[in-house]
Amino acid sequence: MSEKIKRVGILGGKRGMSFYAPINAQPGYRVAGVAEKVPERLEALRTRVEPDTALCSSYEELVSLGIDVIVLANYFHEHCRYAIRAMEAGIDVISDTTAAPTAGDCLDLVECVERTGRKYFLAANCPVMVGPSELIRRYRAGELGEVLYAEAEYLHILGDTEESAAANLYPEIDHWRRYLPGTYYNMHSLGVLMAATGLTPRRVTAMEIYTEKHAAKVHLKANRSPGAIALYEMDNGALFRSTGCCGFGPNGKWYRLSCEGGTIETTRLNQDRVLFRPNGAPAEEYDPEAQYTEEEKKSGHGGADMRICRKACTYLSGGDPGVYLDIYAAAALSLAAVYGLYSILDGKSYDIPDIRDKAAREVLRGDYRNPFPDPERPIDIPCSAHEMNVLK
Predict the structure, then answer these.
(1) What is the 3-state secondary structure (H, E, C) of 117-131?
(2) What residues are paired with 234 via a beta bridge?
(3) Please, is 66 exposed, middle or buried when counting C-beta atoms within 10 Å of its C-beta (0-12, 13-18, 19+)?
(4) Which of 21, 61, 156, 185 is surrounded by the most beta carbons within 10 Å?
(5) For the whole model, what pTM was predicted?
C-alpha cells in the first residue's frame, strides 16, 4: 500500500455518510470532504464529521480539495456523469449504486475507464453480506458444479401510499424513486448472482407487475407498478430470474443457485442463514462461519458497508479485493436493467450487447433514452408500460 494518504471526497451527505467512518478506518485513506446540495442537510453534518473534514455545497468545491478518490452517493441516475467527470480529472471512483441509467451512458463510462486508466469500483454491498458471501464461497469452490438456474429477489416496501411515510424517500416531486422502472436498482438482486457466478446476461424477457387496485394506492409515484420480474439468459446458457427493487413485502432479500450438483440458497426468514442441498446427500441448514465482526457491525447494512469499503480501498491501492463487479460487469448489470425496461415497454425479448466487444457495443452509442426527470436531459422513454401518474 502506498505511504501517501489518499484523500477521499464523498458526494452526497445522506447515504454518503455511511461511507465516512468505514473509509476513515482504512489505513492510508482519509475523508477530506463531504458535499451536500441541500443547505439544511449540509449544516446538520457539522456535528457528524471530524474538524478537518471540509463541508462542501457542490461537486466542484469537493474536487477543489485535491481529492484522489470520490465516493458517488448522490442520486441514483446521476452517478455516471460524475464518475466520468472525476476520472477525466484524474480521480478514482467508488460508485454506491448502479453504474449508469441509459445504454449510451454504459458505453461512455466503459470507454472513459479504458481511456483514462482510472480505477472504478462498484460498491455492491449485498455480495459481501453473510449469506450471499457464503453462496459465493461454496459456488466458487466448485462444490455444486456449473449453475443452470438462479433466482434473486430484492423486496423493499417504500412507504409510498402516505405523504408522511414517503417524505424521506421522495423529497422532491421529481425525485428518481418516483420514476424508478421495475427492472432498475438490480444491484441487490441480479448483481449478487453475477458476482457469485461471474456470468453475464445476454438476453432478457421482462414483465411488469400491475393491478388497478395497487396502482390507485400509489398516488405519489409516477410508476405505480410494484415492480417487475426479468428472465435472463446468461452467457453460459443458464437462466436467471431476478427482480429489480420490488415494492411488495415483507422486506428482504433471497438468493438461490441451482447447479449440476444441487442447490444452495439463503433462507427465506434469515438472509444471513444458508441452506445447502447437494444431490444425493442430506440437506444442511446453517449459519456461516464468516459472521460480521464487532467493528463491521458498527457500520450500515448490518456490517456490509464496512466490508465493501475495505474491499474498495484494497482495490484502489492495487490489491486484490476478491470477488467484485469490475467495470465491464457493472456496465453489463446496468444494461440488463435498461434492456429489461425495453422488453417491458415493447412486449418482447431483447439481446443485450456485449460491452466487452468493441464492435458489438457500437449499437449502444448515443442511446440515451432516459426515464428519469433530469435537468440535463429530457424524459424520452416511459418508466412504466402502464398508465403513468401525472405528478404536479
Answers:
(1) CCCEEECCCHHHCHH
(2) 201
(3) exposed
(4) 185
(5) 0.95
